[in-house]
Amino acid sequence: MLFTIRPARDDDADLLPAIERSAAQAFLACEGLQWIASEDVLSAAQHRVFIAAGHTWVVVDEKDRPQGFLCGQDCGEDWHIVELSVAQALQGRGQGRRMITTASAWAQAQSFAGLTLTTFTQVAWNAPFYARLGFERLDAQRCSYFLQRQLAAERAHGLTDRCAMRLELQGVS
Ligand SMILES: CC(C)(COP(=O)(O)OP(=O)(O)OC[C@H]1O[C@@H](n2cnc3c(N)ncnc32)[C@H](O)[C@@H]1OP(=O)(O)O)[C@@H](O)C(=O)NCCC(=O)NCCS
Questions:
Q1: What is the pLDDT of residues 149-161, one digit of tens each?
Q2: Which of 34, 43, 92, 99 is most buried, most CB within 10 Å of its CB?
Q3: Pocket flag, ligand 1, residue 128 (CB < 6 Å)
Q4: Would residue 173 count as lying in a domain?
Q5: Residue 128 belongs to what domain range?
């Protein structure tokens, strides 16, 4: 089956929470993180805000049905990935990597200096995956105020073993 990445439309918003829930089932295989599979996800209303800003991409199947999404926000000189999710049935087939490439090309064209995110340090498809894509782990001194607050909020929510990462976009062709 052929999958395409395109900017999300308003009528995609209602479909995205189910994709994030499906994606999170991957955590059932992670010792100590199974609870994430039943955590709250971004609401359709929250998605509409990202979509209206032009800050969401979806990977769609041949019938134009979203199977994954990446959304984010401007964050000073950098652009921050808020959520990346691929429906469980499609995971491990390169669509997450493609969406990051899409967002990164867009952010570079918009003159953002870097792409940032927060993620689990040890989960195979989180920090190690992003590191292979060129993201660098930031120590506390190199985290922006925004990233420090983000990590603190995640800690307060019970998410430990998290880190902030950044992909340099300047000078990348
Ligand atoms: C993270 C996620 C979006 C990646 O999307 P994807 O389409 O599965 O990603 P890709 O197929 O492009 O690549 C996944 C990478 O993780 C690795 N990976 C995926 N599942 C894995 C597993 N169960 N064990 C080990 N490695 C795994 C793959 O080897 C691949 O790495 P590589 O391309 O460098 O070899 C998707 O797995 C997902 O939705 N996961 C649950 C939600 C989540 O963790 N979101 C990210 C929050 S920061």
A1: 999 999 999 998 9
A2: 99
A3: no
A4: no
A5: 4-168
